[in-house]
Amino acid sequence: MESKPIVTYHGNQVLFSSLRSIVLQGLPKEPAEWRRSYGRPPKSVNLEASFVPYDEDILPEETDKTLVSRPYFHIFWTDCDLESYKQTVREEMAEWCSGLKNHNIPDWLIVVVVTDETKVKSKLLPRSSVIDKVRSDFCGKQPDRCFVLVEPLKSDPKSAESWNTFFVRLRQLLLQAYGRHLTKYEDNMRGLREKRNEAGWNFQEYFLVQEELGFMFEMMGLYDDALIQYDELDALFTQFVLNHASGVTVEWLLTLIKPCTSWAGLSLIKPIDREKRDCVRDNKASLLEFRNYLFSRQCAILFLMNKPWEVVQRAIDFFHNTVQEMKVLEVQIPLGGLDCWVFLSALEVLQHCQKQAESVQNKSYSLYTASLWDYACRKLRLLGELCGLMPNQTEQPSSEQLSRVIDLTSGMGIEEIDPAVTQPRPRDKLREALSSRESFQKIYLELSELTMGTFKHIGRFRSARLLGKDLAHFYMQLGEPQKAENFLVDVEKSYHQEGWYQLVEATRLELANCQKYIGDVTRYVKTACQVAGSQTLKLSEREKHMTEVLQIADEHKADEPITLRASPLFFIVESSVQIKEEKVSLDEKVEVEFVIQNNSPFSISCNKIWLTLKSFKPDQNVMEKRAKVINQKPNVFRTGSDASLDKQVTNFKPVRRQMPSLINLQASIEGTKKGIPSLCGITCVNTHELLKRADSAGGSIGKQEPVKLETSNILCLENVKLQQADNRIRFMGQAQEAGTFKLQQVGIQIQGLEFLKDLDVENYITVGTEEPYCLIQPEVILAGVPQEVVVTLHTGSYSIPSTNKLVVRESPDITVDTGSHDKSLVLEKTPKETSTKMKMTIFMETRANGPEITENKIVFDCDWLTRPVIAKVQFLHPFKIEHHLRTCKERKFLQIQVSGSSEPNFELTEWNLIATNTCDVDLVPHNFSHHKLRVNKHQLASCIWQIKPNIQQDIDLELQFHMMYRCLESGIQTVNDYKKKQHVIHKFHLSHFQTLYTAHIDVTPKSEDKVCKIGSMVCMKLHVKAMENNSISKDQNLIYEVSADQSMWGLYGKTTGTFSLEKGDYSTQMNVMPLLTGFLHYPKVTISKYDQTASEDIWVKNDNENQEQEKQDNCQDFSESFTKAAVSDVDNPSPNDNSPAKTKESKLAAIIAFKTGQVYYSSIGQQIQVYPENASTDLEVTVL
Amino acid sequence: MAVCVAVIAKENYPLFIKTIPTENELKFYYTVHTSLDVVEEKVSVVGKNNNELRELYLGLLYPTEDYKVYGYVTNTKVKFVIVVESSNTSLRDNEIRSMFRKLHNSYVDMLCNPFYTPGEPITSKTFENMVLSMM
């Protein structure tokens, strides 16, 4: 506000005009503290003043109630000297004083300006200067009313200090004056307010009085207080309105609620609209005008306080409130008038604030402008609808609407033109908008975009989306459904994410209409299906769209079918999936049943419903895992309150991908399989899902569109009518392929539409492929005897079509008799998974040695199968034949031993031993030749022959043992024809068996009584003699080795020694000591060949040969042939070289053992009695 | 009194909405849904400031020409929204507060029912009757 409190000046005009600018600038420079009455907090005020010349006529009367135009303070300026004071100034001053006194004004000040400082100081006598005179003449009681200003025009510190003191004094006095007036004024005003309920009280009058106070505060720069005055007025008025509405009518209000003819908007161009104020004063203003004025004042003060955002914030409340008041007071206003007012005012506020608030543009500001923009936008739309300006191709605005435009435009009033404002005024904008459809559309879209942008800027996405929905509607009318679709899709998405299904469906309905308009069949069908399947929308709408869908389906019969997700229209109840038999074999019937819920408004006939089965590889791991997941109930659930909604959708992250709602946990143990685990814990199985980036990468929220699976495994139903609600569908089919199948996808075809649903169920159909197999009983068959066996053929998954043959393949050692010439078994027609039994005879040659049980296979060729069937059989060989060579000096005997291995008895007859390669030997049996021997598991049979060679030379013998046998057991299923004697041969080889040397040991006690006592040394003599017919040269080096159990004999002397039998015999002796009492066997002596020249190779070779031979002739030849490296510490030159590794270097001496029978140990069974040392009557005897 | 009472889950989907002129139900749905913008704004502003006990009552969320929308957020972030007509000037802040308190108590009683799973739409008759008594 331009006006300032008025201060008059009098006295020396020239002097004041020289000081005026200093005073004007100096006064507001520093704030003064203003203490206030009624306990209000003190305020600091920067005082300003405007100076006018004193005139007695302008002095206010005591009764005068003005505040703003009142001269508050009066100053008399003088710089006269004493002379002129006495002559003129004093009189002038007295007149001025008396004038003030007459008006009862105590607020004055006399300023004496002193230019010459010396004058003040040099005066020794008091009361001689002008100041003293003035003081004594006028300010006797109030010395502070006189002030001396020293050298005001100089710039030295003294004069500056003098100025300062002056200002402090002036401010203080000014505030005193203000305070007194204000207190008086407020009291007066309060009194006036108290009378408000009396008849004849006028609000407008009171309004002016309180506004005056407001002006005063504003003038003083106390904007807060000024605003309070207006707010109080606002509240008072509102209360009156409410009272009026509730029936308490007041006279003065009636002028405000006259029918409204002007809806000019708020104007904020001028801080005070004097015209309006006069209107209010004269009680001519309408409610809108009054409100406009009041609010514009509030805004003006707020702008002064630099709070443009508060203007915006108050504006919304103000508009709502005013609109409500208009309604409550039932003020007549043409349709649209109020909307015009709101729109104009809102735009004015926004425009003005934008200008003001460029510096404080921030979010909190946008927070309020957003809803204001929104409000304006809505109003404009409303006006557009009222005036027929909405785009609608078919209808032109009616004449009523056209005249309404004219009415509304005229009611907007005439706008004052402000050259400072370059922007078009709101009124111009509205006029333009109402002028034509095109311009309306332009302005509306512009405004909407702005609003939406502001909403998004402050993060109110829901509001933005709602606006988007309105815009979509507008675009639809505009005939631009493509634009509308985007908005609607956005809106639908956000509602869907937040789980507001009613809103989703309402939006879908609009979307369906929109897409239908676009003509995009695929998308329309999708949305239309959702609409038709809705549970909340109106039946008529659903039916309409469903009919539409069916029509499209019919039209697209011939084309490529449109694939859709089934879920909105057809819901497959996954929990109802039933498989009649989960395991079937090939060609069997498969039966799957589930419930399809038809959500459409009527029953629908489908051309086809199919179920796709996907071959599921029975990967063991996967199966196990699945089993684990199923068995192991997940321990931790993160349950959202609603399944479809996992994440709270906040304002700031409007779109987020859904997270899996389940955290799958499994126990995990790390460590060795057997040992103690090193780490136990739980692991999350679906981390990749949970930790997937949710922001950008692949963050599309829409579920993937289903893809039709092409596979041959399909169960299909044709021409099904799906009733409303639940339909139980049963699929039948034949299992044509073996394997495990997962129920993968359900498809429903209606003419040209295909509805697909991927099943997420853990149901599997296993089509069995059990291979046929054969069993042969008994499991263990006796070899060597023909036996009847039962062949059981299990057909598995393959039935035997008709009479068929099972051909048995013979192997070399197995003979089979099936009763037919081609070794086949005839089979009847047999269904699968059953078995059939057949009989046949089986025979396997037995042999004399080898393992008891042999496994064999019998192969059956089946005509109806690609592969033969193999049966396993085990044969038990009933005999085992062994031979042993026995020696008695030079005589040789051969023992043949037949041991049985089977439970049944076998009778052996006609046994015989023959030499096949030579006649130079006689085999003399020592048996009862016609005796029948019996052999079984527990009984063995032996027979013996003496071998008598007819020649001296060493001979090799090829021997054969023959015998006939017969099974005696009747329990064995032998075929009668075959119950004759069978024949078995045992062939073996014998060589180097003739006795070459005889070794004899004699142990003789040394004591006189020839008694062998424990602990006493005994002499052991060894005597080796070559046989007379020995063909081996006598200079053969031999070695003897004496060994004994160390607990029985202590050996002293050489235990090993080499010798040769050049003289025909050899004797040696050594000392031994018995360590036990009782009968002891003599120490054992072994004679071997000793070959000093044998090289390592030979030794090794010998060794190998012997080993191999031992293996091969295990049963045939019982010679205990062995070879040893020379380990003797006697004959070996270096005793240290006895380890095999070191013997490589040195010459090796080989010990080659004789074959069995070549050396005859004549004393092998002899014993000697050993007595205890102190012979007593009691003998301790150890029997060994 | 109130023309619309809504209970909204933590995740911002509606648990319960009752409107008095039932024929234009959807309008209130939009209003309530949009008001969530302001609810979140207010809650997040409070959350930033301190950890002290937040006042559950959020006050006037936003006025429209015809309606006033008030909000209340429980400690478990369940939101209550009450819409009253602007013309109904008898309802002061205190009345609205007591309505919310009543609603909250009733909601807690309803939640104590062991057969109610939190997060499911509210179907309790008692609760509905209480809401109707406020309308």
UniProtKB/TrEMBL annotation, chain A:
Domain (Trafficking protein particle complex subunit) ranges: 357-531
Family matches, as InterPro entries: Ig_TRAPPC10, TPC11, TRAPPC10/Trs130, TRAPPC10/Trs130_C, TRAPPC10/Trs130_N
GO cellular component: cytosol; TRAPPII protein complex
UniProt keyword annotation of Plastid present: no
Stretches assigned to the TRAPPC10 Ig-like domain: 780-875
Subcellular location: Golgi apparatus
Any GO BP annotation: intra-Golgi vesicle-mediated transport
Pfam families for the chain: Foie-gras_1, Ig_TRAPPC10, TRAPPC10, TRAPPC10_1st
The protein, known as: Trafficking protein particle complex subunit 10
From TrEMBL, chain B:
Principal subcellular localization: cytoplasm
Localization in the cell: Cytoplasm, Perinuclear region
Matches recorded under CDD domains: TRAPPC2L
GO BP terms, alphabetized: endoplasmic reticulum to Golgi vesicle-mediated transport
Protein origin, superkingdom: Eukaryota
GO CC terms of this entry: perinuclear region of cytoplasm
Gene3D superfamilies: 3.30.450.70
SUPFAM superfamilies linked to this entry: SNARE-like
Keyword list, A-Z: ER-Golgi transport, Transport
Tagged with keyword Transport: yes
Pfam family, any one: Sedlin_N
PANTHER family per UniProt: TRAFFICKING PROTEIN PARTICLE COMPLEX SUBUNIT 2
Family: Belongs to the TRAPP small subunits family. Sedlin subfamily.
Protein name: Trafficking protein particle complex subunit 2-like protein
Native source species: Potamilus streckersoni
Taxonomic lineage of the native organism: Eukaryota, Metazoa, Spiralia, Lophotrochozoa, Mollusca
